[in-house]
Amino acid sequence: MNAYDFDKTIYKNDSSTDFLIFCIFRHPKALGRLPSIIAGYVKYFILKRGRKEDFKEKAFSIVKFCDLDKDVSDFWQKNKKKIKSFYLNQKRDDDVIISASPRFLLEPICKELNISHLICTEVRETDGKFLSLNCWGQEKVTRFQKEFNKACVEKFYSDSLSDTPMAKLAKEAFLVKGEKLLPWKNI
Questions:
Q1: Tell me, what's the pLDDT at 180?
Q2: Which end of the chain is more exposed for a tag (fewer CB within 10 A), N or C?
Q3: Maximum C-alpha span of the chain
Q4: Per residue in 138-175, pLDDT tens?
Q5: Which residues in 72-103 are b (16+ Cβ under 10 Å) and which e?
Q6: Residues 30 and 37: beta-carbon distance below 8 Å
Q7: What's the DSSP call for residue 52?
Q8: CA-based torsion, 11, 133, 37, 23: positive or negative
């Protein structure tokens, strides 16, 4: 089986960010959450305090203002064109998507692409609270091994060195830069 990160790997941008912006424009009441989201961003990314999950919970709290099923469906109708052609040209039935993005956002596009294996962050759809650890870094390996035990990853693809723990599980790993696949070095 091959395993792929999702955001900036097979999807051109960060799907969570794109979705949050989509929802804020669609639901003006969600704008009221922006001060909290910005404060969370500053605290985590600039001041280097707190947990990434805390920031992301603040961001996903906008789901309170959404018609989530309709918004996710409409989002993918507009954005599925951002799935990279390298992936579409090589995808297989046994592919695994492993991502920090939430299940409610990725599951519909995975179904549309006939991807049956999705490992991701579990986020409550009513308020954006995390129901699992953020599926990032070493947590991806933990979750993959829990799901697939000792299964062999033939090839792993990601845009980020934060996925080095997953790359180490694979027989072969690639860094994805746009549509270019580069050999993963020094793992």
A1: 95
A2: C
A3: 48
A4: 999 999 999 998 888 999 999 999 999 999 999 999 99
A5: beebbeebeeebeebbeeebeeebbbbbbbbb
A6: no
A7: H
A8: positive
What residues of the chain score a pLDDT lower than 50?
A: none
Domain that holds residue 94: 2-183
What was the pLDDT predicted at 187? 56
**pTM attached to this predicted model:** 0.93
What is the pLDDT, as a whole number, of residue 186? 63
The enclosing H or E element of 59 equals helix 52-60
Output the six-digit token pair for 59.
């961001």
Per the structure, how many domains does the chain have? 1
- Encode 138-177: b = buried (16+ Cβ within 10 Å), e = exposed: ebbbebbeeebeeeebebbbbbbeebbbbbebbeebbbbe
**Terminal Cα-to-Cα distance of the chain (whole angstroms):** 20
